[in-house]
Amino acid sequence: EVTSVSRSGTKPEGATHAVAVNLGDTAAVVDLVNQADATIIAVSPDRTGGSPQPVIDAFKALIDARPTGRLVVVGGAGSLLDASGKRLVDDPAFPEAYRSEALAFSKVLELFRAAGSSIAWTLVSPAPAYPVPASSGSYVTTTDTPAGETLSAADMAIALIDEAEKDAHRGARFAVASA
C-alpha cells in the first residue's frame, strides 16, 4: 500500500491514498512516518533564490522528534566526495545554480549522521547528472563517492523502492547511478 504525501495532496498513479502535508509540519510528518514501514522523502529547497534554511530546519525538527518509522531521504550529489576526498560542491566548477541546494543537503546529511542510531534513516545521493532521460533498468551504488556520472528518474525510483523494502543502508548515505 502506497500513501503519497505532498504539499498539494494530489494522488499520483499507483498511490492508494494521497495526503496534503508540508515538511515543516513536524507533528503531521512524524505521524505519517510512524504509520509506515518506510517513508521516502524527496523535497528540495527553494530554487528561486530564496533561503534553503526552511528545509534544513524542517529536517532538523523531524530528526529531533525521533520518529519511530524508517526514513529514506533523497539528498543531492554535492555532498559526495571526489577522488581527493573533497566534496563536489566545493569544486569551483560545481554549477552555481545548484550550490545552495547542495550545501543545504550537506547540512541535512550532517544532521542525520549526528543523530546516529537514534533515528532509522538512509540518505540517497544521485549521480551528478540527474535526471537523464534514458533508463538502464538497473543501478549501481557506492557510499560517499559518485557511483557513476548519470542517473535516470526511473533508475532512482527503483533504487528508492529497493532501499525502502530491503533497508540495506540504515544509518548511512549511499550514492546511486544508472548501471
Question: How would you sum up this structure, described in words?
Answer:
This protein is an alpha/beta fold. The protein has a single domain (23-178), classed as NAD(P)-binding Rossmann-like Domain (Rossmann fold, 3-Layer(aba) Sandwich), CATH 3.40.50.720. The chain is 32% helix and 23% strand. It is built from four helices and nine strands, in the order ββαβαβαββββαβ. The chain has helices at residues 26-35, 53-65, 96-115, 153-166; strands at residues 3-6, 17-20, 38-41, 70-74, 121-126, 129-132, 139-142, 150-152, 172-178. The strands form three sheets. The chain has a five-stranded mixed sheet, sandwiched between helices. It is globular. The two termini are 28 Å apart. Pfam families: NAD_binding_10. One of its GO terms (molecular function) is oxidoreductase activity, acting on the CH-NH group of donors, NAD or NADP as acceptor. This is FMN reductase. InterPro entries: NAD(P)-bd_dom, NAD(P)-bd_dom_sf, Polyketide_Oxido-like.
